[in-house]
Amino acid sequence: MQNQITIEQLNSALSSLRTLRSSVSHVFETLSNGLRADHGEEGKDKLLLELQELLNNVNVNLRELDQTVNNLPIPSAPFNLGNTTFLSQETTQDRQALYTQLVNSYKWTDKVHEYSSYAHTLLSQNSLKRSYINSGSTKRRGKLQSNHNVAPAQVDNVINTIDRSFNDMKITISRPFASNAVVQINLSHVLKAVVAFKGMLMEWVMVKGYGETLDLWTESRHHVFRKVTENAHAAMLHFYSPTLPDLAVRSFMTWLHSYINLFSEPCKRCNCHLHHTSMLPPAWRDFRTLEPFHDECKQ
């Protein structure tokens, strides 16, 4: 931006200020020391010449500082400190520390804005979408919701077929939100999961422990099942297929069924049940082989 101060300009101004302060300190140091033995018989004259030279240096440094400051761009608007101006009136040490915390929060906010702008640029260039249909085409726009407008009977048929495929996984279908299905999954005595559908499209997954109350929005109180939920969202996006939605559901359910050995089978990389740093069982399942890995070992 035109009125934005660069780091180089700010460093130059601070360097000039440090030089000026150093030269002024030399003046006061010389005055405090007074006449010294090395001044000899003409001590007063030599002291005056030394002070004159030091004051000339101060004058030169002051002109350099003025020139550097004048080169700094003027802000387009005054800084609005708001109620933070009252921090200077605090006398207690605890409240004086608020200013440092405030500065750190401003720096953090600036970084959030900077990184979010980078993320927006990268995501806008990302061609991965949950549809193979160009949303800009008016001729095909009517087909964009094809996976969402699937008949409930077709969804039930796919899920019931999956339910019959696994003896140790029970799947229950309900529709508390109109025609869209909410599928509850009990995987033996290991975990519970709930999957929200929109037509044949999986929209949300929540995984909890076997003894926990299952709902769509409350996270598990156990770290391991929060990690499994995070991995389940990744799997849901990985298996998504707008052209074969029933295959996507079957693949996801097969992947989720592989957690039947969550607490019994060790990691394929380190051959340990619990990782030495996170102390968690292998909560990741490979999308292709379904082998268990710790998050730290999957790379």
UniProtKB/TrEMBL annotation:
Locations listed in the record: Nucleus
Protein name (database record): Mediator of RNA polymerase II transcription subunit 27
InterPro entries (alphabetical): Mediator_Med27
Keyword terms of this UniProt record: Nucleus, Transcription, Transcription regulation
Pfam families: Med27
GO CC list: mediator complex
Any single biological process term in GO: regulation of transcription by RNA polymerase II
Family named by the database record: Belongs to the Mediator complex subunit 27 family.
Protein species of origin: Eumeta variegata
GO function term, MF aspect, one: transcription coactivator activity
